[in-house]
Each structure stands twice: as structure tokens, then as C-alpha cells.
Design brief:
heterodimer; A: about 375 residues; alpha/beta; eight-stranded mixed sheet; 15 helices; about 35% helix; about 20% strand; B: about 325 residues; mainly alpha; MetI-like fold; 2 domains; two-stranded antiparallel ribbon; 2 strands; ABC_Ni/Peptide_Import (chain A); ABC transporter ATP-binding protein (chain A); ATP-binding (chain A); transport (chain A)
């Protein structure tokens, strides 16, 4: 019996063994994805977005030693228990993956057509001639001009945007059910970025493919996704429909991120308010809310105990503070931009290092 | 039997057409590369010739070697005149080049025949041994390098690393003698030396392979390791390419030019000197024993002929490596 859900991730943890002990890449992440659904995963560098995604296909950079626990099921089949050979059958065939940097993602000395053909031959029953025809179709589909002639070109004969299109063609070549776009547009300039996002969205519709869009940019999420989840330090801190999260963020971290999106209507005297402190580079298993050292609203309980999920059907966050309370003090997104609430809160609080950093930054003349 | 199917006659290209294709080939990037390298080769070969001549001019006195110890000063002068040794430097050099154009470097006093002839007779043996040695070295180097480079830090990597460091550190003749003692004398598996049967080649080829494989191995390991950590390898894995195909079809292909250049350099280095002591140790009838004996007997023409020819061989090998790496790496080959 196949499960109705395409992907079910349950309490997924990924622990890296390093010379200085164990470090959590992902710490107990759970989410689901339906067929044809588009999910955005947002967070800073090191928040565990990519580690979550690469765990699904079991591909890691060389020399990394990891321990993975929990469960990740693709149509009911447990991905984490699969052998390397079984996973090879999943990679490319059922889960397509588009990486961040298109300039280095293709073998520089093999014509792009051959790289597509090679993938098709591994996963489909096509013969060489059939695979070659399909490669041309795919390049055409992702908008490579003069596709038939382009198959014979080497990667460095294409621009970055074109290469990313080729990588998208590679990722969808075997009609995967799930496409993971891992910062797929980050390395591209904004015009090209818009084109690639439009391409990804239309491909998802045409091929009824689900997509996980990993990004640090809410703009990308707003343009492409149905749902979004925000990750911080290896955990999901907020999830919900894109409209709900963007207009009414409940977690202070999400609110902080949204506050950082530059907006046209605000006059130039307005300064961006960075989230104080830094994202942890090595996450260890410590009690309390991971965001508490940087949070404007954190109290003792936040530092001591892990926050529960405030459960809403379509919108939920993991925070001790009452979302309503946050909303009343800081309002919606618009009021988050004003700083009164934050300052008052700061004065009444014990000051950790992160907070003082923030104060220093605020005083800095620019 | 009747011929029912006559093969279509191959169209004979007109001279004009062939002329055009040849010209255009010479103008292609590869053609230009070959021309450029050939020009360099001529210059280098000329320098080799010049150096040999200058050394011959200033070192030793052929007349005193020829003449009997009792010869008078006048007899010596006459001999010098008859050999043309009283002529100015440039005249002698010109005559030397003239002779060289006919591949004549003089007569071997020791063998009483043209020195070139004596060298030609054995050069084939040296080239054969060098080719087999280079193949052995490349096999050892590439297999070891790939095994180590795809498993950095593993036990396999450490053992291969140890072997390759040994290969770079030990003296070649010592390894040769060691192999003779173990495999020929103690185990009696192969003959100690000689060239009467192919098994006589095993030990010298193994020695050459070991001595020259170490560097190829280290270079291969390093470039494979580097290549494996490139993004495209991760991306290729993410589309489910089998590991072996990834290593063989992508990684090895991309490092082939580097490995080949190293292997070619090791091959050239054999002619540059390393093969000769091994030939002597294994009594292989190549240039090594010939040159050593000739040097002992102050037989300059043979040494000269040998140096000229090995110089030409080194230049040829380098040219071949350049062309091969061009053909291997598509990025070096514009449309």
C-alpha cells in the first residue's frame, strides 16, 4: 500500500562526527509533502536546510562522517534504511536535485548532451538514440535555444543562467516525483533568478512534480511555494502557508528575517535591523530554545526548556512566547519595522552577549 | 567465383584538394601546436649537438689517444693536420654538422666501425625496455593513485603512500639487485638476467616500473582526490550515477591529461639516465652497457652517438605527450 503522502520526514536528525565532538546538522525535523506540492525551506547558512535535503538522497561531500536517525519515507519507503544501490535508483529517478552553483556542477570536459544521456541511460529503459532525442527535448523544454546543436557543447560554452537551466533539465530528465532546488537561484543575478523560478514553477505544474525550494530568500518562497517552513539551528521554528507566514510571522526569528527584506515604500532613513548575534556554527545538544540567545523576547524559560509547538492547522510555530502577545507588542510585519517594542523589552532584560552586540550595532553611526 | 559486389572505388582526391586539407590541418590548433613543438625540438636538438661538440673540442686529446707514446712532436702535428684538428673552431664545427647531416659521428676506435651503427644495434633493446617499464610504471601509478585517491586516509591509502615514497627514495640498482636475489636466486622464478627469453624482461621491467611508478602514483592520487571533491562529482552522484562509472567516466577522464604528462615525463627520464644502470645490473644489451664500456675505453664517438639519439628520443616523447594531452582534453581543443 502506498501512502497518500509523497514524503514524510519524522524526527530526522543528522549528527556530524568531527574532531571536536558531535555536531548537530539537523535536530529532530519533521514535515510532510504531498504530491505536486511546493514547500519552501528558509533559514540562514548552517541552519540545516541542505543537510535535511541531502539526507533524503544520501549524498554527502567526501570525508564527512554522519549519523542519521529518525525516518524519511518516500511514498512509504524508508529512505534512511536503503542501501547505496537502492538509493542510486532513487537519486535522479524519483528525486531530482538542483544545486546552488551552476558553474561547477557540470563535468567541464563532457558535452552537456552526453551528461543528460548518461543519466537517462542509468534510470530509464531508453536506448542511446532515444536518450539523445530525449536530451534535446529536455534542453528545449528548459529553454535552451537551438537545443539540438547545444547538446554537443561543453558546459563552459554556456552562461551561468543557461547552465542552471541545463542542471534543471538534468534533474527532471527522468521525471522525478520530487524536485529539490537547493539555493538553485542564489548564484544567479536577479533577472536570471526570476526566469529560473518561473521555469521551475511551470515545470512543477506540467510534470505534476512536488518541489522543496531551499533558500534564504523569502522573495523566492513567495514567488514559488505553497507552504513554507523556517529553520533555525537544525530545527524547524515555524511553518505554515506562505501567505500566513509572510503576513503574520509568529516566531521572533521569522519576524526578524522578514524585517530584513528591503522594501521600496520605506524611506531611505530607515535602517535595516539585523538580528543580533550570529547563527551558531556548531549546534550541540543543549536545552532551551535554540534562538533564545539572540531573541529580543527570550525569558528564563526560553533558555531552559525547549519550546512546544503552538499548533494551528495551517500555521504553527515553536515558541514559548504567546504569539498573540508578540503580535500585540510588535504588531504585524509593518510594525515590526518600528523599534519601540524591542527597545523597551531590552531594557527590562538580563543582558547576554548577543544583546549587547545588538546595542553596539544600533549605536554605530552609518 | 564471381565478384558480385565490387566495392565502390575510393574517390581519389585531387592534388589541389589534398593540398588545401593539409594546409588547413597545419593551421588547426593541433597542427600549430605540432609545428611549434617541432621548431622547439630542432632548436633543442641543435643545442644538444652544440654542447656535445664543445665538450668534445675541449675535453681530451684524440691525437694523444691515437698516437703511440713514442711519437715525436712532429708526427703528432702531422696527425693533427690529417684529422683536421688544426682548423679553427668554427670550421671544425661546420664539418661536424656536415657529417652529422649524414648521421656520421665518426668511427668507434673500440669497435672499429661507425659509432652510429653500434648504437643503432642496441637502441631498440633500450626503447623496448623503456616502453615496457613506462607501461608498468603507469599501471602501478594509476591503479595505486586511484585506489588511494578515492579512499583518502584509509589503510589502503597509507600502504600505497608508503610504497610510493619508497619508490621515490630507494636507489634503482639496489632494488634491481634485491629483486635478483629474491626472485632469481632464492625463489628461482625468473632468470637473473639476459634477453634470450621474454622472462628475462620481468625483473628489469618490474624494477623500472617500481622506480618510476611512485611519482605517477603520487600525482594521480593528488589529482584524483582533488577531482573527487569537485562539485560536479557530488552533482553526478545526486543523479544516481554508479560510483565506478563516475570514477572511470568523469574523474579519470578529467585527470588523464595530468597523469599522462607525468607518465611521459617519467618515460623521458628513463632515457635521461635511469634506465642505464638497470640495463647494466640485468645485463640487458641496451645503450647502458654499451655507453659504460665506451666511456671506460674513452671511445667518444659511441658516447656521442648515444647522447644524440637519446636526446632526440626525449624530445620525441615530449612531443608525443603534448599531442596526446591535447587530444585527451577537449577543453584544449577549440572547435
Amino acid at each position: 500500500m502506498t501512502s497518500a503522502r509523497l514524503l514524510e520526514v519524522d524526527e530526522l536528525s543528522v549528527v556530524f562526527s568531527t574532531a571536536r565532538g558531535e555536531v548537530y546538522g539537523v535536530d529532530g525535523v519533521s514535515f510532510t509533502l504531498d504530491h505536486g506540492e511546493t514547500l519552501g525551506v528558509v533559514g540562514e547558512s548552517g541552519s540545516g536546510k541542505s543537510v535535511t535535503a541531502t539526507s533524503l538522497i544520501g549524498v554527502r561531500p567526501p570525508l564527512t562522517r554522519v549519523r542519521t536517525s529518525g525516518s524519511a519515507r518516500l511514498e512509504g519507503r524508508e529512505l534512511l534504511d536503503m542501501s547505496e544501490a537502492e538509493l542510486r535508483g532513487i537519486r535522479g529517478a524519483e528525486i531530482g536535485y538542483v544545486f546552488q552553483d551552476p558553474m561547477t556542477a557540470l563535468d567541464p570536459s563532457i558535452p552537456v548532451g552526453n551528461q543528460i544521456v548518461e543519466t537517462l541511460l542509468v534510470h530509464t529503459g531508453l536506448d542511446k538514440a532515444g536518450a539523445q532525442r530525449r536530451a534535446v527535448e529536455l534542453l528545449d523544454m528548459v529553454g535552451i535555444p537551438n537545443a539540438a546543436a547545444s547538446t554537443r557543447n561543453l558546459p563552459d560554452q554556456f552562461s551561468g543562467g543557461m547552465r542552471q537551466r541545463i542542471l534543471v533539465a538534468l534533474a527532471i530528465s527522468c521525471r522525478p516525483k520530487l524536485l529539490i532546488a537547493d539555493e538553485a537561484t542564489t548564484a544567479l543575478d536577479p533577472t536570471v533568478q526570476t526566469q529560473i523560478l518561473a521555469l521551475l514553477r511551470s515545470l512543477c505544474r506540467e510534470l505534476s512534480m512536488a518541489m522543496i525550494m531551499i533558500t534564504h530568500d523569502f522573495g523566492v518562497v513567495a514567488a514559488t511555494c505553497d507552504r513554507v517552513q523556517v529553520m533555525y539551528a537544525g530545527r524547524i521554528v515555524e511553518r505554515g502557508s506562505v501567505a500566513d507566514v509572510l503576513t503574520g510571522p509568529r516566531h521572533p526569528y521569522t519576524a526578524g528575517l522578514l524585517r530584513l527584506a528591503p522594501r521600496l515604500e520605506i524611506n531611505h532613513h530607515h535602517r535595516l535591523r539585523p538580528i543580533p548575534g550570529r547563527a551558531p556554527t556548531a549546534i550541540r545538544n543543549e536545552p532551551g530554545c535554540r534562538f533564545s540567545p539572540r531573541c529580543e523576547f527570550a525569558d528564563d524559560r526560553c533558555h531552559r526548556e525547549e519550546p512546544p509547538w503552538s499548533d494551528g492547522l495551517t500555521h504553527a510555530s515553536a515558541c514559548w512566547r504567546n504569539p498573540a502577545e508578540l503580535a500585540s507588542r510588535d504588531g504585524g510585519q509593518a510594525e515590526l519595522a518600528s523599534r519601540d517594542g524591542g527597545q523597551a523589552e531590552l531594557a527590562s532584560r538580563d543582558r547576554g552577549q548577543a544583546e549587547s552586540t545588538m546595542l553596539d550595532r544600533d549605536r554605530e553611526p552609518r | 567465383m564471381t565478384t558480385t559486389q565490387v566495392p565502390a572505388p575510393t574517390p581519389v582526391p585531387s592534388p589541389a584538394a589534398t593540398g588545401r586539407t593539409r594546409r588547413s590541418w597545419l593551421r588547426s590548433p593541433l597542427g600549430r601546436l605540432v609545428l611549434r613543438r617541432l621548431r622547439d625540438a630542432v632548436i633543442v636538438q641543435f643545442l644538444v649537438v652544440a654542447v656535445i661538440f664543445v665538450i668534445g673540442y675541449y675535453v681530451g686529446d684524440p691525437v694523444s689517444a691515437f698516437a703511440s707514446p713514442e711519437a715525436t712532436e712532429e708526427q703528432l702535428a702531422q696527425l693533427r693536420r690529417s684529422l683536421g684538428l688544426d682548423q679553427p673552431f668554427w670550421v671544425q664545427f661546420g664539418r661536424y654538422l656536415e657529417d652529422l647531416a649524414r648521421l656520421d659521428v665518426g668511427t668507434s676506435v673500440w669497435q672499429q666501425r661507425p659509432a652510429m651503427e653500434a648504437v643503432w644495434e642496441v637502441i631498440g633493446n633500450t626503447v623496448l625496455l623503456a616502453i615496457l617499464g613506462a607501461v608498468a610504471a603507469t599501471v602501478f601509478g594509476v591503479v595505486g593513485g586511484v585506489l588511494a585517491g578515492t579512499r583518502p586516509g584509509s589503510a589502503v591509502d597509507k600502504v600505497i603512500n608508503l610504497i610510493s615514497v619508497l619508490s621515490l627514495s630507494v636507489a634503482s640498482f639496489w632494488i634491481g639487485l634485491l629483486l635478483i636475489i629474491v626472485f632469481a636466486v632464492r625463489l628461482n622464478m625468473v632468470p637473473t638476467s639476459g634477453w634470450y627469453e621474454w622472462r628475462g624482461l620481468i625483473l628489469p621491467v618490474a624494477t623500472l616500473g617500481f622506480i618510476h611508478g611512485g611519482r605517477i602514483c603520487q600525482v594521480t592520487r593528488s589529482v584524483v582526490l582533488d577531482e573527487m571533491s569537485k562539485a560536479y562529482v557530488l552533482v553526478a552522484r545526486s543523479r544516481g550515477l554508479p560510483y565506478r562509472r563516475l570514477v572511470a567516466g568523469h574523474v579519470l577522464r578529467n585527470v588523464a591529461a595530468t597523469v599522462l604528462t607525468t607518465a611521459g615525463w617519467e618515460f623521458a627520464r628513463m632515457f635521461g639516465g635511469s634506465i642505464y644502470p638497470i640495463e647494466v645490473v640485468f645485463a640487458w644489451p641496451g645503450l647502458g652497457p654499451l655507453m659504460t664500456t665506451a666511456a671506460h675505453r674513452h671511445d667518444f664517438p659511441i658516447v656521442e652517438a648515444a647522447v644524440l639519439i637519446t636526446g632526440a628520443l626525449v624530445i620525441l616523447v615530449n612531443l608525443a605527450v603534448d599531442v596526446a594531452s591535447h587530444l585527451l582534453d577537449r577543453r584544449l581543443r577549440p572547435e
